[in-house]
Amino acid sequence: MKIEILERESYYHIYNRGINSTLIFFNEENKSFFLRQLNKYLTNKISIFAYCLMDNHFHLIIRLNKEEKEVTQAFSNFFNSYVKAVNKENDRTGSLFEKHFKRIKLQDENYLKQLILYVHLNPKHHLDANFKEYKFSSYQAFISNKETRIKREEVLDLFGGIENFIFCHNQKNEILTEKHTFE
Q1: Segments making up each domain of the chain, as ranges
Q2: TM segments (predicted)?
């Protein structure tokens, strides 16, 4: 599989899962540590538009602020630091993630909006959890006034304001709920 080259100022869906779909987060502290390490290694190199951490996979929606080589190296350092800490904590060795992290370049604003909805609704889809209350998603950062590194204003502008941001999430959630009910 050819790996997409990351380009400065472009938007990407970055994701990966555990090798053989196994856990990559064994507890909530792992998820908190993952977010701290993401900040440590990638602050100022990327802008984050949404994220969600599930037990066996993660999603990030980002824009590159630096050149590809610098960002790719920072991602490598970030993932390595996370894996080393989790392996040590869980007395395990070897790979935690499937090969290279996956990346899909986003081509337009509509796809970006749909992907933000998809990422935020991941807890509903995978855990049948309330996406509004899920702790390890960026959704709450958008509806609160707390300081955040998430590109809140850019995303809310993309949706036409906070009211429409919430409306779109609720509407997509209802569609998922109806679909799940009929299956």
Answers
A1: 11-182
A2: none
The residue ranges of DSSP E strands in the chain, in sequence order, are 11-17, 46-53, 57-64, 102-105
The CA distance from 50 to 24, in Å, is 19
Q: pTM above 0.85? A: yes
Rg (CA), the chain: 16
If 0-12 CB within 10 Å is exposed, 13-18 middle and 19+ buried, where does residue 137 land? buried
List beta partners, residue 137: 52
Tokens (6 digits) for 178: 């109806």
What values do phi and psi take at 171, rounded to 5?
-65, -45
Q: How many residues belong to the chain?
A: 183
**Among all chains, which residue has been given the structure tokens 């909006």?**
113
Q: Which mean pLDDT values do the consecutive 10-residue runs of the chain (183 residues) have? A: 82 95 96 98 97 97 96 96 96 90 93 97 82 95 94 97 97 79 48
Residue 106 and residue 11 in contact, taking contact as beta carbons nearer than 8 Å: yes
